[in-house]
Structure to design on (1236 residues):
């Protein structure tokens, strides 16, 4: 493909994807296709319904085949039932396969048939079959519905019938809507697709097109940017890339894409909505991805523009400003990171505190992934800032960076302490971070560059995780303060004025509701329907703090619920409530207060509903303010809230004080014994609250001078550590995965990665500790979890047996018939045992319960679990422990037989004890276990990270000492033996080194003699060659003179004078050659010692800096650059190179000499001297460093040979790069002193 066309084609592909999305969304190609699509979907649903009906008929046949004439076997029939099934014998229920729904009492009186029904459990298709004396009803679920909506109970359509369709069921024929019929043509229900306009059959296609459009646009932006990058215009290319990506992001926000055209849950604001720029989780994800692109671009520009090298040459005054700016920018990034975390915790309904919930959902995974990407971005930004500081700090004195840091930190900490105390710890974290960076910068020799980067990223991860934990801490306390303030307002007010007003308003609406009137007038009053309609449609969320009871009465004041003979009458209600002191300003609205309890309110609203021309029915709404009971057994299922909350009533206690005297308390906290009354006089108690031991108190003063103290468990250091550990481990995992992905995409980086021995030790030790810790943690968690579950089940069985024994002692045949007395006895036992208790008769029908709301709200039917019935009644089991399900909540229930002690062999009934908090109790134990393991794991990992660093340093000290000695080992100098007392592998290496020195010393003399002879032979050859050159013209001149004298030419005297001049010139050349070789033979051995190479280069450059003869530019850092070298030799080398550079420039142009010194990442210093001369011809490039070779007439050829010898003796190297006609650059690379 033509590269020039690639960007255009990519942009066109992206544009076509978005045009296709718009076409599908607005149906431009087939405007009438929506109705057709709905009809096709209705046909598919009809086919699935027919398939389910066929399965239900087959199930009914299997049930009939296993029915005895007079006996029913639950154990046998349960194996045949897939759908909920109910078997009747002569109108009496004799078998049921599910206890989560109850049979409809007023089904159509037909022998066979299929029909749809709706009750408090949801909507079903009932398939009825009859073979006298049995009738079988098979219930096919269509929609499971609950009166309560919370994290566990959510209404949903049955996936077997509707799959992923989003629609509304209507059980009445609607001609304008698609309808579903049986195969025989009987109507079942209508389908309303109006609410699914954004979830058509093209959802996946639209999502795919959206993703493809984004990818194509990113490729287009990258392709355009790459054109500039290839030309070396890095800044322009990156700026264009970010501008295109930013424009795309702004366009998506302004157009509300993709949520405006397709209902993608990830972009639904109900899960997260923070601001205009982050209206959903998906938008937040796109934002942090763009931020990561900006951070990555910053690192790319930082490296490609060689900013670090430019900073080395920066003057000290400017570098100080840059250090201060870098510190301030990082503090600002930390504050932004805190706000980022706080925004997620505050604006998302999901509970992200691991000390409260460890439930992992896909949206939580997305949010944690966003945090990981954001932390990686922070790592990249911090890498640039820390690198700048690391380059600039060594220029300064030891204490100046610390002084600057302390001044900046003091100002910021003072500001935080006064205005935003929650940021104080974050700023302290930044102070510690910069202190570590400055310390590392001043001791760069301690670790290699690659491992320093590795540790920097880990340090930033720790900083980010601590910031997230601190933000969670601040968010929890702010939310808790708000919750306590609202609770205090409710407790301190005498009556609920707003509630009374709203209740009076909805009463008139209920009285005028035609559907409620019709239901009350019928022969069979549908009480459950009326309750659902009132609680769902008329009573708003404001009344969630009340327990609501709806009672129905006819014109005579009798209950309309004929099945409940013990229900209270309207006259009895009026006798309790209708007193002058209980009446409110609203008609038929009464308020009953309990004098024994503070803030105990019960409202009664009587609503008259006309049920005929002359008669009125009455609906009584009884609203009782929920009581704060820490040990309440009311299940979480009954809490009408959409998401889990970080704290609930079971965690709260409160007390009323008059002065210092306790007036009233409620909850499990013992104020009389544990509360420190000195706290009442502290203003902080009423502003933010105060901790005491393991509790946190918050005070509110009432208008009558009393003080309300609300107490919760303390949320402190352990919780912060747990959240830190979770975030830290998540980020480490994200960092490792990101690193592996990077290496997978950039395999050549792995080949180029050459860590030193110390870094290898630290990396291997870190992973060697990480893997065993991980395995031990997983194994421990598994074993302890199994132990927890076993102990929990044993405790439930023991509690159930204790309740069974207590009830059996009180049981008599008359007690089962006296329901009120049985109810009172069960309630007392339940309160003592802190458990819910359900009593069933011998036929499995509910008699009494300590928690009627469970059954009134339709969570369970009034039938015993058929598995328990089969085990106890048929298989004579002593107890049955079953795992049951209500919505998304799994819980354990224990069932035991109820027997009269007078008739121990006869089954009187069943005891059912559901432990709704069993999963929560196990979750709390697991949370405590897992957070403890995470804390230990994280702390140990960080400690080992530090310890392995020092351990590797200690282990490599002998190796560094050995390397230092090996660097100084030579054949000419004096070599010292090493002293090492250990008998380990390093000791063996030292012994071999010392033995090598002895051998070397023995062979040194012989080798020196051989080298000397070889050198003199080479010297003789070079001298002979050099002397022969001037002798030839001298011989020829003398021969010519001799001939002229013999021939007695007239110009003999002139010729003698001319030849004498020639001889003198050649003799001078011979003298220079002799002097040069004399100097070379007397040249002393190089003596390496610490020297400031930058100062030496400065002096040499200044010496040759004569603007009249040459233009010389310097790029040398204004700081010490210490190497081990012979200073006099280096100065002569610089002078020689500079002189050669100036002389290499032709006379037709003025010399331009560039002198540069830069520090490399590999702890090397690189010096370059560049000229604009004629360059070095290719044929003589290999002879430049050979002694006695010179391209200049007056040169001896010794200078570069001596320079090469001295530089290599200092552990460096010298080379050159040349281009004929353009110039030559000589390079000198020397190791810094720290690395030697």
């Amino acid at each position: 493909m033509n590269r020039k066309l690639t960007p255009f084609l990519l942009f066109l592909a992206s544009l076509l994807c978005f045009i296709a999305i718009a076409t599908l969304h607005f149906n431009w190609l087939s405007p009438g296709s929506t109705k057709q699509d709905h009809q096709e979907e209705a046909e598919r649903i009809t086919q699935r319904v027919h398939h389910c009906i066929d399965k239900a008929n087959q199930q009914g046949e299997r049930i009939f085949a296993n029915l005895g004439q007079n006996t029913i076997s639950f154990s046998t029939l349960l194996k045949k039932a897939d759908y909920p099934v109910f078997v009747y014998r002569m109108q009496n229920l004799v078998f049921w396969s599910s206890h989560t729904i109850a049979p409809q009492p007023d089904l159509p009186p037909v022998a066979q048939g299929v029909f749809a029904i709706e009750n408090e459990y949801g909507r079903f298709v009932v398939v009825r079959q009859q073979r006298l004396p049995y009738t079988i009803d098979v219930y096919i679920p269509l929609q499971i519905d609950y009166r309560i909506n919370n994290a566990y109970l959510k209404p949903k359509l049955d996936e077997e019938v509707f799959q992923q369709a989003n629609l509304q069921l209507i059980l009445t024929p609607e001609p304008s809507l698609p309808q579903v019929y049986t195969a025989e043509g009987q109507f079942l229900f209508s389908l309303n697709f109006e609410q699914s306009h954004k979830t058509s059959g093209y959802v996946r296609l639209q999502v795919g097109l959206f993703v493809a459009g984004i990818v194509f646009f990113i490729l287009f932006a990258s392709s355009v940017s790459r054109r500039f990058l290839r030309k070396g215009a890095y800044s322009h290319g990156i700026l264009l890339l970010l501008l295109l990506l930013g424009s795309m992001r702004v366009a998506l926000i302004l157009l509300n894409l993709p949520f405006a055209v397709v209902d993608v849950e990830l972009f639904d604001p109900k899960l997260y909505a923070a601001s205009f720029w982050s209206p959903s989780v998906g938008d937040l994800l796109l934002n942090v991805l763009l931020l990561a692109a900006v951070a990555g671009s910053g690192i790319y520009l930082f490296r490609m523009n060689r900013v670090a090298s430019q900073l080395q040459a920066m003057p000290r005054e400017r570098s100080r400003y840059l250090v201060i700016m870098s510190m301030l920018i990082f503090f600002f990034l930390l504050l932004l990171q805190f706000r980022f975390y706080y925004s997620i915790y505050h604006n998302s309904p999901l509970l992200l505190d691991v000390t409260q919930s460890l439930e992992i959902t896909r949206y939580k995974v997305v949010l944690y992934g966003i945090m990981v990407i954001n932390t990686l971005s922070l790592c990249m930004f911090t890498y640039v800032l820390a690198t700048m500081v690391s380059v600039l700090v060594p220029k300064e004195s030891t204490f100046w960076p610390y002084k600057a840091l302390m001044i900046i930190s003091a100002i910021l900490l003072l500001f935080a302490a006064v205005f935003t105390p929650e940021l104080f710890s974050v700023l302290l974290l930044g102070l510690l971070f910069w202190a570590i960076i400055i310390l590392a910068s001043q001791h760069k020799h301690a670790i290699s560059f690659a491992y320093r980067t590795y540790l920097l990223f880990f340090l930033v991860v720790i900083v980010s995780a601590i910031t997230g934990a601190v933000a969670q801490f601040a968010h929890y306390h702010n939310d808790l303060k708000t919750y306590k303030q609202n609770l205090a307002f409710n407790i301190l007010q005498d009556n609920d004025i707003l509630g009374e007003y709203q209740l009076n308003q909805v009463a008139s609406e209920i009285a005028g509701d035609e559907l409620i009137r019709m239901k009350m007038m019928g022969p069979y009053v549908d009480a459950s329907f009326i309750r659902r309609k009132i609680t769902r449609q008329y009573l708003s969320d404001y009344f969630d703090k009340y327990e609501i009871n709806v009672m129905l009465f006819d014109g005579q004041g009798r209950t309309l619920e004929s099945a409940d003979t013990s229900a209270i009458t309207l006259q009895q209600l009026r006798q309790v409530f209708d007193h002058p002191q209980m009446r409110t300003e609203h008609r038929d609205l009464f308020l009953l207060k309990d004098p024994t309890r503070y803030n105990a309110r019960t409202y009664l609203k009587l609503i008259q509903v006309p049920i005929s021309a002359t008669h009125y029915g009455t609906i009584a709404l009884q609203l009782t303010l929920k009581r704060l009971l820490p040990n309440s057994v009311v299940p979480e299922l009954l809490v009408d809230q959409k998401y889990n909350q970080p704290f609930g009533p079971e965690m709260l206690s409160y007390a009323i004080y008059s002065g210092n005297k306790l007036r009233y308390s409620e909850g499990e906290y013992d104020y009389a014994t544990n509360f420190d009354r000195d706290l009442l006089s502290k203003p902080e108690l009423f502003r933010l609250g105060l901790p005491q031991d393991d509790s946190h108190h918050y005070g509110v003063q009432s208008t009558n001078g009393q003080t309300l103290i609300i107490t919760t468990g303390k949320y402190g250091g352990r919780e912060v550590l747990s959240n830190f550990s979770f975030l830290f481990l998540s980020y480490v995992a994200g960092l490792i995965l990101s690193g592996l992905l990077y290496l997978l995409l950039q395999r050549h980086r792995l080949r180029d990665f050459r860590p030193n021995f110390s870094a290898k030790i630290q990396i291997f030790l870190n992973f060697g500790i990480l893997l065993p810790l991980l395995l031990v943690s997983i194994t421990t968690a598994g074993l302890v979890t199994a132990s927890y579950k076993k102990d929990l089940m044993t405790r439930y069985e023991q509690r159930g047996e204790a309740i069974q024994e207590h009830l059996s002692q009180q049981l008599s045949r008359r007690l089962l018939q006296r329901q009120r007395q049985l109810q009172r006895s069960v309630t007392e036992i339940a309160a003592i045992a802190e458990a819910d208790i359900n009593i069933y008769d011998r036929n499995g029908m509910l008699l009494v319960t300590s928690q009627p709301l469970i059954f009134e709200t339709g969570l369970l039917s009034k039938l015993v679990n058929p598995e328990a019935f089969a085990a106890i009644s048929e298989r004579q089991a002593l107890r049955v422990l079953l795992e049951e399900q209500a919505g998304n909540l799994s819980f354990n229930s224990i069932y035991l037989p109820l027997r009269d002690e007078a008739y121990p062999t006869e089954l009187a009934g069943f005891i059912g004890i559901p432990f709704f908090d069993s999963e929560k109790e196990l979750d709390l134990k697991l949370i405590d276990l897992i957070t403890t393991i995470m804390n230990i794991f994280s702390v140990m990992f960080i400690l080992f990270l530090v310890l392995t660093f020092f351990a590797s340093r200690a282990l490599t000290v002998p190796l560094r000492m050995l390397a230092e000695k090996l660097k100084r080992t030579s054949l000419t100098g004096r070599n010292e033996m090493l002293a090492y007392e250990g008998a380990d592998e390093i000791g063996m290496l030292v012994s071999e080194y010392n033995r090598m020195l002895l051998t070397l010393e023995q062979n040194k003399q012989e080798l020196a003699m051989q080298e000397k002879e070889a050198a003199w032979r080479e010297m003789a050859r070079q001298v002979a060659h050099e002397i022969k050159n001037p002798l030839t013209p001298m011989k020829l001149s003398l021969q010519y003179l001799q001939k002229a004298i013999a021939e007695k030419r007239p110009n003999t005297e002139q010729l003698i004078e001319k030849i004498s001049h020639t001889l003198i010139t050649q003799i001078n050349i011979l003298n220079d050659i002799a002097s040069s070789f004399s100097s070379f033979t007397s040249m002393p051995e190089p003596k390496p010692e610490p020297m400031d190479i930058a100062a030496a280069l400065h002096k040499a450059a200044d010496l040759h800096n004569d603007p009249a003869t040459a233009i010389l530019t310097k790029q040398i850092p204004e700081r010490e650059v210490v190497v081990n070298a012979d200073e006099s030799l280096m100065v002569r080398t610089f002078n020689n190179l500079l002189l050669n550079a100036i002389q290499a420039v032709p006379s037709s142009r003025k010399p331009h000499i560039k002198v540069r010194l830069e520090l490399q990442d590999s702890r090397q210093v690189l010096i370059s001297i560049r000229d604009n001369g004629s360059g070095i011809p290719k044929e003589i490039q290999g002879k430049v460093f050979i002694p006695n070779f010179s391209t200049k007439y007056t040169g001896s050829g010794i200078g570069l040979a001596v320079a090469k010898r001295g530089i290599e003796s200092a552990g460096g190297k010298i080379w050159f790069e040349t281009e004929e006609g353009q110039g030559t650059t000589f390079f000198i690379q020397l190791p810094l002193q720290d690395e030697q």
